[in-house]
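Journal club side-thread
Mid-discussion, someone asked how the predicted structure for our own chain would compare to the paper's figures. Pasting it here so we can look after the session.
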Amino acid sequence: MKIGLYFGTFNPIHIGHLIIANHMAEYTGLDQIWMVVTPHNPLKKKETLLDDYQRLQLVHLATEDYPKIKPSDIEFKLSQPNYTVNTLAHLQDKFPQHTFSLIMGEDNLKSLHKWKNYEVIMQNHEIYVYPRLDAKGLAEEAPNSAFKNNPKIYFIDAPIVEISSTFIRENIKNKKNVQPLLPSKVWEYLDHNNFYKK
């Protein structure tokens, strides 16, 4: 199977994440999308980041009605700080029957050349890129030509979704109703546990 890896802290997962993941599952050559929950880096301040397993539970709740979208805790088991190139090597070793591709926004593609061993990633894996808006609200400019014409990079005409987890957390704290931005089970879980309210 061709698996697309969609990495994130998912703090919390929201409908924007699901729209992109579902678009990748339905309109590309990928068979499944794994939502890879990034663990808390022990060297960074935690602040509003929910516990790793709480965020994983939110991804479970959000994706249980989507058979092509699966939660993944693969990075919980790897040493910190973790690098994508190591996660990919670990997955390929553990699941040799699958091929793994990366899913990322255009903003991340622009900084890909700064990633550890990014040449190894590009040599061994395809990358599916979804559009993002820049600070002026315009679609991001295409990245430099090294990435633009690379046969392993696919620019997907996915919907541009401008919802951020930061916006959701801030507005829950400010007692605003953000229910439409979250899968219903995620909203119920957050509300029941009083997450982000303080």
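Post-session note: Residues 15-27 form the longest helix (13 residues).
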